[in-house]
Amino acid sequence: MLARCTKHDQKIFDDVKFNTSVESVTFNEEKGKFVVQTIDLKTQIVMEDMFDKCIWAAGDNGKPSIPKSIANTLSSGGFKGMVMHSAATGADFDQLVCGKKILLVGDSYSAEDLTLMAIKLGVKSVDILSRSAWGVACDTASWPRNCVEVHEEYAIVGVSDGGRGIVIENEEEEDQMTLNDIDTVIFCTGYSMNMDMLDPSLRLKDEGPFFSDYEELHKQKMGWKMTKNHLSKDLGEVPIGNIVSYNTICPDLYR
Fold this sequence. Notes:
By secondary structure, this protein is α/β, with parallel strands linked by helices. It has eight helices and 13 strands. The strands form four sheets. The protein has a five-stranded parallel sheet with strand order 5-12-6-7-8, with helices on one face. A three-stranded antiparallel sheet has the order 1-2-3, with no helix packed on it. A three-stranded antiparallel sheet has the order 9-10-11. The protein is elongated. The two termini are 34 Å apart.
């Protein structure tokens, strides 16, 4: 990949800062420039630079999203097992699941992926809580070793058995049950945008998709243009396009 990137320009990465974290972004009204403070994660050296334009491009998956109500229920109930987000799983995942009973909160791709991985690593059992009852895990007709149970439309409502049991409830059906001897609870509850580095005045007004902000930017006609590069000859000047939907999930098509 590096060879392909540097084939026509050996200096293509000269202006890229690797192993760097953005600490803060503010706008200096007097100078009309953005002030960006960064820290080198290897040397811990803090630097400050000024830019004419600044694009926040951190994406939707910036930081783990954990439902506070569920986390508080586990904490106040004295749950004695481990609680973590799926983003925290790593090389030691086998130690967390081998021969143990785990509970996954959420039923999308992370839940499916971690369930299959846990089965390969010798998990004793996996319980999956599906709030919507139509996620990827719910669409899975069968699981290896028959050690997985998906609880549709159930939510955590309490802790029992001296901190080792998790009480779940289907409010609509008024059904409640206890999952005994749970060792680990893993939140497979997705992510949220991370704008912590941006000054409050620079953050998006609303949470979620930022089409409204994009529309305002589009209307302003700021005259932003791509600098000449190796694709300019073939593509020419590429204008800012109209807003299109980026959703790719088509239940009627492939689910």
